[in-house]
Q: What sequence folds into this?
């Protein structure tokens, strides 16, 4: 059995639409079970789980667009895809969707890291993810590039020798002028 991120949701919890209705206190147990998470679909459970994740970082009740909230949405989707891919490893479309969401979340976290570092750290801690810096740019090594680099190094060394000789010449001329002035 594969553990799910939705396991911590209590099955007696009512669905989002029915939770705040006053009539729910007087409803029959069978109806209550039908309207609870026990009979809810995976999609409905996922909505509630994502809502719980987002409530932790939301700045105001109408905040749906901040980087932290978007990162939480992406994390919920990524975890759902991970669970699905453990059960169905050959599902290439969902793997592709998950990788696209991972890239988007990484982009969001990179932006958040640049703009508000303390919020970035808090978000990473709450999400339970470890952000890794993108790799430094690496140029693909080709023969042509190696030859060009070697040539540039030779030119630089020759220029350095010429400048050193010129500096030595200027220094000796300056010392000669100082001696002549004495």
A:
């Amino acid at each position: 059995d594969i553990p799910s991120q939705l396991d911590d949701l209590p099955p007696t919890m009512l669905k989002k639409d029915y939770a705040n209705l006053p009539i729910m206190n007087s409803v029959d147990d069978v109806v209550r079970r039908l309207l609870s998470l026990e009979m809810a679909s995976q999609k409905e459970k996922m909505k509630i789980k994502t809502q719980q994740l987002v409530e932790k970082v939301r700045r105001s009740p109408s905040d749906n667009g901040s980087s932290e909230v978007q990162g939480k949405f992406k994390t919920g989707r990524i975890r759902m895809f991970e669970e699905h891919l453990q059960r169905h490893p050959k599902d290439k479309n969902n793997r592709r969707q998950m990788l696209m969401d991972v890239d988007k979340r990484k982009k969001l976290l990179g932006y958040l890291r640049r703009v508000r570092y303390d919020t970035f750290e808090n978000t990473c801690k709450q999400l339970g993810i470890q952000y890794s810096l993108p790799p430094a740019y690496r140029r693909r090594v080709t023969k042509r590039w190696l030859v060009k680099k070697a040539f540039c190094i030779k030119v630089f060394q020759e220029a350095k020798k010429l400048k050193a000789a010129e500096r030595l010449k200027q220094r000796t001329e300056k010392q000669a002028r100082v001696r002549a002035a004495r």
Notes: The chain has two domains: 16-127, 139-181. Residues 143-181 form the longest helix (39 residues).
